[in-house]
Design goal:
The chain is α/β, with parallel strands linked by helices and 182 residues long. It has helices spanning 14-22, 62-78, 93-102, 108-118, 138-148, 172-180, and strands spanning 3-8, 39-43, 46-50, 83-89, 123-128, 161-163. The structure holds guanosine-5'-diphosphate (GDP).
Amino acid sequence: MMIIIFVGRSNVGKSSTIRALTGAKIRIGKRPGVTLKPNIIYYEGHRLIDLPGFGFMERVNEEKQEKIKDFIVHFVERGKFDKAVQVTDIKSFAEIAKRWEKRGYIPLEIEMFHFLRELGYDVVLVANKIDKIPRDKRDEKLNELCELLGLRLPWDTHKFIVPFSAKTKENLNTLKEIIFSS
Ligand code: GDP
């Protein structure tokens, strides 16, 4: 039995990923930022804690976005979980990260990844929406993700980075194995 937290910027496909993993009927494409209450999903004896999506959200003011981030940080710091799964959108990760770096900020998703690792978590990094990247560009994209996170190249030397598509279910079994193995 494991307690596993799921984090991700809003709209990366976190709900879709949890749904693909467990079959739980959680709503996809729901209006984000409305509630801070984590959603708990029970699956094969495990407890999955779905934390609110963070970062920029349309029609959610900056103060509320800050509040969500603080909530996640405090929640993760206070609890003791067996594993952390960070869902990213591989199509937009680098673009958004570079935009923020250019403005002199540490991109939120990069900050979150390092925060989880500093707390000692085994982070499973889901590179979701891989279906949007042509096959011959995938290695390049995944290496770019690695570079931005300060991880060594090539990307496939890290077992915890999993290219995935919640839409096509590509790599679903690999992802399941990595997340639910202790
Ligand atoms: P969340 O806000 O992170 O929980 O994201 P959702 O699961 O609600 O998904 C946000 C949007 O991305 C929805 O329109 C989904 O249909 C879409 N989406 C999620 N996963 C994928 C994927 O793997 N591929 C593609 N092409 N779209 C996806």
